[in-house]
């Protein structure tokens, strides 16, 4: 039971990484913008956050630096695809490649650094409950912030006027423009907020999840987050559940290895990515379901006045 409680706790921790990035990408796509540069943004944010945490001694400063780095890269991406009307897919891939190389170059001097591990948050009384306490109430504060963010985002999208405008821009930017809404600025803001959340995800990896810097340490989590937005049909609650699903698959490999299960380590390592492919294949079989839930203008350029 203790081992199972630890597995649940590790699942929540691992899922938080994917949840922040996927929620950010969901905001992007709700506005009609596809950003394939999540992996690159997360890597740049990871080294920016790690460097800031090393020099200040505060992981919270590192998370803030990661959010800023992600927002800045997203702003550049947004200016290119929203104002210059470059291809969203090609620009996103270029951003991902740039982030991978740039983070490796900047991170050379930090490969020997390591942040001190800090004890997780222990919620009084609840954290002392057998099984439930270790599983749910001894997490880092960012785990609970991710849950709160999911609830807040669901309320924003479906209960607030601003959320309605954002969804309208993603469904029909021409109609939103005709009603007087600044479609381009709304999309840029959505892209930057999404980039900041991807940045928080990347910084969380390097400052909390594994408090060190290793080249390429995001290891495909940005692509999993991108796939998760489709898997969750662009709904925040499903994004969070999907993040925990993928986080659980990721941690299951370590749990099985710890239990001495005789399975190839390479096979266990590929489980999260295999699960991503299987889910996407199953979803793609129902094109109508995807089309009904997908923002109508997703990936399509918008030319005001055209």
From TrEMBL:
It is a multi-pass membrane protein. It is found in: Cell membrane. Its main location: membrane. Pfam families: BPD_transp_2. Keywords: Cell membrane, Membrane, Transmembrane, Transmembrane helix. The chain crosses the membrane at residues 6-26, 33-54, 60-82, 89-110, 141-158, 188-206, 212-232, 239-257, 263-283. This is ABC transporter permease. It comes from Piscinibacter gummiphilus. The lineage of its organism: Bacteria, Pseudomonadati, Pseudomonadota, Betaproteobacteria, Burkholderiales.
